[in-house]
Write a structure and sequence with these properties.
With 128 residues, the chain is an all-alpha fold. Helix content is 81%, strand content 0%.
Length: 128
């Protein structure tokens, strides 16, 4: 299972057969092997991965924005043409992480806290 996990990670990041329709198969192998690994062995994740899980919605929302904007602005620098795969993945990952961290702390967390306050206020109002 561990080897399937790492092979799928390498195939996804390297961009091997990108656009051929096999990307879904690689992702399925990645997620499937992770699920089976977690069932058989307790995995402890570090602080970074826990933080990534906390801000997963921001990552989900922002990754396409970063990808589209980087396609417009970074294409002139030759990053898309000369460096596929790993280099592009690292650049987009860093940009997505920075944008998601910002929106998570400036928008998502305050909105959730505000929503909790409103719900608590409504619950107290209904009790009285």
């Amino acid at each position: 299972m561990v080897s399937i996990f790492w092979v799928s990670v390498v195939l996804i990041i390297s961009g091997y057969n990108r656009g051929s329709g096999l990307g879904g198969l690689y992702s399925f192998a990645l997620v499937g092997s992770l699920i089976l690994l977690c069932k058989n062995k307790e995995i402890n994740f570090g602080k970074f991965w826990l933080m990534m899980g906390e801000m997963s919605y921001s990552l989900y929302i922002n990754h396409m924005v970063v990808k589209k904007l980087s396609g417009i602005y970074l294409r002139d620098l030759g990053i898309y043409n000369n460096n596929g795969g790993v280099t592009l993945f690292i650049i987009l990952f860093i940009l997505t992480f920075v944008m998601s961290y910002s929106t998570y702390n400036l928008i998502e967390k305050p909105s959730v806290n505000f929503g909790r306050r409103v719900v608590n206020m409504l619950i107290q109002k209904n009790r009285s």
